[in-house]
Write a structure and sequence with these properties.
By secondary structure, this protein is α/β, with parallel strands linked by helices. It contains eight helices and eight strands. The chain is 37% helix and 22% strand. The strands form two sheets. Strands 3-4-8-5-6-7 form a six-stranded mixed sheet, sandwiched between helices. A two-stranded antiparallel sheet has the order 1-2.
C-alpha cells in the first residue's frame, strides 16, 4: 500500500510500502527520522524504504489454493498475535467472505508454561475461527480458549487438525498460521490438503 510521511497537513514524501500494521509503520518512521538525523534526506530515506524486503515469516503468503490464502507469521505470544491479526484484518478489510482462520501452535517457552494463556482468547477476538495445535503443552488449551466458545477447536493430532481446517476453509478465506517454530510443516500440509 501507500505510505505517506506527513508534517501536519503537508505530505513530505510518499512511497509504496509492502508491509501492513502499526508496528511496521512506527518502525519505518523511526528509521526515517534516525537516518535524517544522520544526514540522509527524507526523500532518499523514503526511496530506500520502497525497496525494503521484509524478513521471512512476517505475514508471509505461502500460497493460494481455490481462493484460500495461507499465511505464515512468527507471532507467538498474545500481544504479537493480536497485532498480526489486526494487521491482516486491516489488509483484507471487512469485505464479505474475508474470514480469518487462525492456526496457532503455542510452542515458545513462555507459552508452553502457560504464563500468558489467560490473554490468549482476547488476542484472537478479531478472528473468525481458531485452531490450536496443543500437543506437548503443560496446560489445558481447551480450558484456556473456552471463552471463545465454538469458535475455537483444539487438537493434539496435527494431521487431523489440518484435515478439519481444509474441510472448513472456503474461497475468500485467509488461513493465518502463527508459531515461532516449524510447526510440523503445517503450511505445506494445509496447501496439499486444500488441493486434494
Amino acid at each position: 500500500g501507500e505510505l505517506a510521511l506527513m508534517h501536519g497537513e503537508e505530505v513530505l514524501a510518499q512511497t509504496v510500502w509492502p508491509l501492513s500494521g502499526d508496528h511496521n509503520r512506527s518502525n519505518a518512521l523511526a528509521a526515517l527520522l534516525a537516518a535524517r538525523h544522520a544526514g540522509v534526506p527524507l526523500e532518499r530515506g523514503v526511496e530506500a524504504l520502497s525497496r525494503f524486503q521484509n524478513v521471512k515469516r512476517r505475514m508471509e503468503l505461502r500460497g493460494t489454493v481455490r481462493g484460500i490464502n495461507v499465511y505464515d507469521d512468527f507471532a507467538h505470544h498474545p500481544t504479537a498475535i493480536a497485532t498480526t491479526v489486526a494487521g491482516l484484518r486491516r489488509k483484507i478489510g471487512a469485505k464479505a467472505g474475508g474470514r480469518i482462520l487462525a492456526v496457532l501452535e503455542p510452542r515458545s517457552n513462555t507459552m508452553k508454561l502457560g504464563v500468558m494463556k489467560a490473554q490468549l482468547p482476547g488476542s484472537l477476538v478479531e478472528t473468525d475461527r481458531v485452531f490450536c495445535y496443543a500437543a506437548n503443552l503443560g496446560w489445558d488449551a481447551r480450558e484456556a480458549l473456552a471463552p471463545l466458545g465454538s469458535k475455537a477447536t483444539v487438537g493434539e493430532d496435527l494431521d487431523a487438525l489440518v484435515a478439519q481446517i481444509a474441510s472448513e476453509a472456503e474461497s475468500g478465506d485467509h488461513i493465518l498460521v502463527m508459531s515461532n517454530g516449524g510447526f510440523g510443516g503445517v503450511h505445506g500440509k494445509l496447501l496439499d490438503a486444500l488441493r486434494a
